[in-house]
């Protein structure tokens, strides 16, 4: 099984131009050909052939015009004009039913031209009917595509629970708390965090905090899994609120809400301390990609061609030997450089961070990540209490350049292969998250997962568990293996990073929080 982290990605590399096909332009010369040449029209048709073709074209134009304009009111004809995409229930035999993202993208690109990479990624991941996350449980033990730290061992969530508890205590143990998790997967992490937090609060304080939970989850399949784990299936049904959110009550009696995006989180009152978790969430957000050319920044777009051998992902992984015969490299979609500026070219053009990068530089920018991190800071600043933990793989000091990869059945594949069937993931740009927030919050890290877990005391907890299982050698081996997997630099210990945000001037001392 592989985890979603990725090694050996070359940064800021120049793109080999053969990977990109520019959209073909109609030669300007063609329109200059004189109508008559050797007695033939356009050098090809006799006069009779030309007149016949002209008549057909004129008839088609006038039919289209009357369809569009109509006799009286253009709106009467709206239903008669072909819709895009054609509704899948259309009774017209000619209509092509769209029941997968490959057809959807093929038709879209045919009609409107190449798509921004972010639009492609958004549909692949969260299209309501055909998106990757919206249609399955990708973490399922047997049928899933990858595994994450909280699924490897509950000790991971326990360590986070200890961290939130100690920050909560250091802030005077506020009585009202809201845990907000972005992209909670199967709910395992928030389950382990809450269990540990509640246990510690009961044991070491006489405060019984009132805790509410907000889960930001795009997938209704995963919402159901989260509800099954966190709530009592018999006594606490999964309800839908008037605003269209889901809600229930956890096994510990907390109100729990499922929301679609960061915009749905109620700002809350100044009494509530928000404790925010984002584990492997930022790497699943859509990016825009650009290359610096002589004339300026050009956006990389997703183009469709019948079939190309796509070497886009650098499949540098032990589990996935790079092979030209690998069918996952044969894709219908691939990247192309926009020949002109697009509206998004403004993003790198106006930013100090990107403006002066040399010609040939390729960069990735994640506008959604910027919106999400700003919301997290707002949540901290509402009460001047609480904390944010962002855990992901990504770059600490470099701008990600060519990190997009597909993940399918525990191996890396082209991100353009079987859209909607393959998980997509990118490197998180931690430096950018820091730059954006450091004036509004105290920023710590990013530091490696191995270091953070050891600083919090994972070694002590693993010792305890191994002693407790002194008569079960097999269990002891499992505990030790999962510890190595989470912390060893060659496994998940180095590539995964922890970054924390705390309210500015929350504590009088400048001591970093535990773990950092
Ligand atoms: C890689 S999984 C990580 C799951 C979990 N945090 C873990 O570590 O096991 C990404 C999670 O984010 C959710 N997700 C992906 N894109 C999202 C979006 N745009 N809005 C809300 N949730 C999203 C997925 O449904 C899934 O729960």
From TrEMBL:
- Indicate yes or no for the key word Transferase: yes
Where, per UniProt, does this protein localize?
Mitochondrion
EC number from the UniProt entry: 2.1.1.320
Question: Cellular component GO terms, alphabetically?
Answer: mitochondrion
User: Which species?
Assistant: Candida maltosa (strain Xu316)
* Identification of the protein by name: Protein arginine methyltransferase NDUFAF7
Task: Provide the function of this protein.
Answer: Arginine methyltransferase involved in the assembly or stability of mitochondrial NADH:ubiquinone oxidoreductase complex (complex I).
Which Gene Ontology BP annotations are present?
A: methylation; mitochondrial respiratory chain complex I assembly
One GO MF annotation is: protein-arginine omega-N symmetric methyltransferase activity
Q: Does the keyword Metal-binding apply?
A: no
The record ties this protein, via Pfam families, to:
Methyltransf_28
Give the source's domain of life in one word: Eukaryota
What segment(s) does the record annotate as region Disordered? 308-328
Annotated family: Belongs to the NDUFAF7 family.
């Amino acid at each position: 099984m592989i985890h979603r982290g990725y090694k050996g990605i070359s940064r800021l590399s120049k793109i080999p131009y053969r990977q990109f096909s520019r959209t073909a332009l109609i030669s300007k010369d063609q329109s200059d050909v004189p109508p008559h040449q050797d007695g033939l029209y356009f050098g090809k048709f006799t006069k009779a052939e030309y007149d016949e073709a002209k008549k057909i074209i004129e008839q088609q134009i006038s039919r289209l015009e009357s369809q569009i304009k109509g006799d009286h009111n253009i709106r009467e004809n709206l239903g008669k004009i072909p819709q895009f995409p054609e509704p899948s229930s259309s009774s017209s035999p000619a209509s092509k039913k769209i029941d997968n993202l490959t057809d959807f993208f093929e038709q879209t690109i045919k009609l409107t031209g190449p798509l921004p990479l972010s639009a492609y990624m958004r549909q692949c991941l969260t299209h309501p009917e055909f998106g990757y996350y919206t249609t399955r449980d990708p973490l399922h033990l047997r049928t899933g595509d990858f595994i994450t730290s909280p699924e490897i061992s509950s000790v991971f969530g326990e360590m986070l629970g200890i961290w939130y508890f100690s920050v909560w205590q250091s802030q005077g143990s506020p009585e009202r708390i809201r845990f907000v998790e972005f992209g909670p997967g199967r709910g395992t992490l928030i389950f382990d965090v809450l269990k540990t937090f509640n246990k510690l609060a009961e044991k070491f304080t006489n405060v019984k905090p009132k805790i509410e939970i907000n889960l930001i989850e795009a997938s209704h399949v995963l919402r159901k899994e989260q509800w099954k784990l966190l709530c009592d299936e018999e006594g606490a049904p999964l309800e839908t609120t008037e605003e269209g959110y889901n809600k229930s009550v956890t096994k510990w009696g907390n109100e729990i809400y499922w929301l679609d995006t960061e915009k749905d989180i109620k700002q809350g009152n100044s009494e509530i301390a928000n404790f925010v978790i984002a584990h492997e969430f930022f790497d699943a957000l859509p990016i825009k990609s650009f290359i610096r050319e002589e004339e300026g920044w050009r956006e990389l777009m997703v183009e469709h061609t019948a079939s190309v051998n796509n070497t886009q992902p650098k499949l540098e992984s032990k589990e996935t030997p790079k092979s030209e015969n690998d069918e996952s490299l044969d894709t219908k979609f691939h990247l192309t450089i926009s020949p002109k500026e697009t509206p998004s070219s403004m993003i790198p053009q106006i930013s100090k961070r990107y403006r002066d990068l040399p010609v040939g530089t390729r960069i990735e920018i994640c506008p959604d990540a910027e919106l999400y991190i700003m919301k997290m800071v707002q949540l901290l600043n509402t009460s001047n209490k609480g904390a944010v933990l962002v855990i992901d793989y990504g770059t600490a000091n470099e701008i990600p350049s060519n990190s997009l990869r597909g993940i399918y059945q525990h191996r890396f594949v082209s991100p353009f292969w079987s859209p909607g069937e393959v998980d997509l993931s990118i490197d998180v740009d931690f430096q950018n998250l820091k730059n954006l927030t450091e004036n509004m919050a105290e920023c710590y890290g990013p530091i490696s997962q191995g270091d953070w877990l050891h600083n919090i005391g994972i070694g002590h907890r693993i010792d305890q568990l191994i002693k407790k299982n002194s008569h079960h050698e097999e269990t002891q081996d499992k505990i030790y293996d999962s510890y190595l997997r989470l912390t060893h630099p060659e496994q998940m210990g180095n590539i995964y990073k922890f970054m924390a945000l705390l309210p500015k001037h929350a504590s009088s001392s400048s001591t970093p929080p535990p773990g950092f």
